[in-house]
Amino acid sequence: MVIPCIDLMGRKVVQLIQGQENSKALELPDPIAVLEKFDVFPVIQVIDLDAAMGREAQSDIVRNLCRRKPCRVGGGIRSIERALEVTSDGARKVIVGSAAFTPNGIHTEFLRALLRAVGRDNIMIAVDCRGDRVAVRGWREVLPLASGDALPRLEPYCSEFLCTCIDVEGKLQGTDLDWFRRLRAATALPITAAGGITTDEEIRALEAMGMNAALGMSIYRKVFPELFQN
């Protein structure tokens, strides 16, 4: 399944290169209009980048998107209260990233509390990596934890993983299929792949592994070709 990504910053839809705030490759002013462009897709991935970077969450926009389309929502979900708010706003799944980890490993205490609050079926855990090391806090902090070690330890606390290859994110130069093959071997849970996925061939290769593909820049290039003339 192809899942378009709507990344929110400053009440706009943006696409960043490698998650860097000063590297906006795309900016669209109306999130609802973007959602309507993705009408043919069954599920949308919504990431509140402001919340992920420690700023105020764009709760009203997230709520409006969830009420119009099945959405999985992440970005700054670092408390049980915020996870409950997102699910009550209609999110099909909450995506938890930084809060799932401590500086040295897995934040089991938080994950157990989250499991009790919203249920395993409603939880995705984002395992986003630079050079195969887990990156958190808006991808600004890299932990001494490899993806292949993290996934099996996180399995009891979620129903699916979102795994982003940060090194190629937003570059439209292709993704690291070998990395995703290693992830596939590390867990039996569903995986949504993200980061640099550019071609139909890559999407088919991920599908052959049993993975969904979350698309950012490449789906915007197809849906908004007028923005990529130059």
What does this structure look like?
The protein has 230 residues and is α/β, with parallel strands linked by helices. The chain is built from 9 helices and 14 strands. The strands form 2 sheets. It has an 8-stranded parallel barrel with strand order 1-4-5-6-9-12-13-14, surrounded by 8 helices. The radius of gyration is 16 Å and the shape is globular. The model has no long low-confidence stretch (mean pLDDT 93).
Give a brief description.
The chain is α/β, with parallel strands linked by helices and 230 residues long. It has nine helices and 14 strands. Helix 4 (80-88) packs parallel to helix 5 and helix 6 (147-154) runs parallel beside helix 7.
- β-strand amount: 25-35%
Query: What's the end-to-end separation, in Å?
Result: 30 Å
Distinct helical segment count: 9
Question: Which structural class do the helices and strands define?
Answer: alpha/beta
E-strand count: 14
Low-confidence stretches: none
Helix content: 25-40%
SSE succession:
EEEHEHHEHEEEHEEEHEHEHEH
Overall average pLDDT: 93
Radius of gyration using CA atoms only: 16 Å
Which outline best applies? globular
Name the features.
230 residues; two-stranded antiparallel sheet; 14 strands
